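Suppose you are handed only these lines of text.
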Amino acid sequence: MSSQPRTTSFDADTIRGEFPVFDQPLTNGRPVTFLDTAASAQKPRVVIDKERECYEQYYANAYRGVYQFGARVDEELEATREKVRDLINAEEISEIVFTSGTTMSINLVADSWGRKFLRPGDEILLNEMEHHANIVPWQQIANETGASVRYIPLTDDGRLDIQELDNCLTEKTAIIAVTGMSNVLGTINPVEELARRGKQVGALILVDGAQSVPHMPVDVRKAGIDFLTFSGHKIYGPSGVGVLYGRRELLREMDPFLTGGHMIDRVFKEKSTWAELPARFEAGTLPIAQAIALGAAIDFVNQLSFDAIHAHERRLLEHALARLQDEVPGFVCHGPGLEHRGAIISMTLEGVHSEDLAVLLDRRGVFVRHGHHCTMPLHDLLGVSATTRASFGVYNTLDDVDRLVDAIHFAREKLRLV
Ligand SMILES: Cc1ncc(COP(=O)(O)O)c(C=O)c1O
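From them, the structure of the protein bound to pyridoxal-5'-phosphate can be written out as follows.
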């Protein structure tokens, strides 16, 4: 990683100060307790400033203008591409495709790779903890190609049941599509092992890094990952921009996903030929300022260092689980123990509807998400229709955790459970 860590000891209060959104108290005078980073992270000043810099100083369309602004935009975009390459240790910048986010990245692979290479009888190996973004595109392409989707069973504590892998991973498996970290259970999946086992039967692996890339180091070459996807907005960057990493040999064989401007080499009246990578997969106008500011977000997390981020989020998680388990009757945290999870707590409270809980927590300035979190198969498996999720980021403090627990006590009182 190129940028040097700015600090080894993690001062969450100082880091919180870098996020302008926390400068304002809420209308009821309470501080913002933002516990919905898994849905979308808040933005540090450096990211906001970088996006503004682009609009104020050199905005132009990308890869089209020979004039100075155009050249600067291209330079800045390529700088971000290089930062992404470095972040995930890809071999070449041509393997880094800008998309609108994880959802588009997975759709791109399912469509461009799946339509060309899946055959009737092939299997796509999923599991029930996947986000809908890593299920539905595969169902669609399976229907169109005669392939089918298959699911690795989960253990009772919400991990992949690796003992069952021999039964599900066979010569028929064309691709394993798996999340690096579950957006509900927090489960961190053994991606490297899956990739290695997949290779033994000739299967590719796509890792949905929407939740893992912002919180832990991901090395595509070391882990043997063929495709990696993530979203800018979850790594403290802008919304509207995301990344697809694909191994060059795979991307080169794939047909375009969207077609139109920029992705062509030559257009004739009857047919067209395709541009080189990554332009072939970047039809139309990119989210220019957003992609440029994604580079600032990557610098931001690199400077904090993933080791420090992990240690900090682990402290928050431990404190939250200890207090919730100790103090809140009927509290159930779905997912595995601490050693297998990231900083996400999806809970159910006996006798409390998840929406009521979220609404009452909001009265205390505590922002959490409730619902199925785009994981209906997982909620079916858990036997609940909804959960309330608290998820943590670099700006959260132990005080935030305490405010969460206090607000849950408040909610239980309001619901006359005490
Ligand atoms: C694990 C996971 N995959 C995919 C997505 C979809 O990301 P996006 O909406 O940025 O495309 C999310 C978003 O919550 C997610 O948590």
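What can we learn from it? Residues 39, 101-103, 131, 133-134, 179, 183, 208, 210-211, 231 surround pyridoxal-5'-phosphate (CB under 6 Å). The first strand starts at residue 33 and ends at 34.
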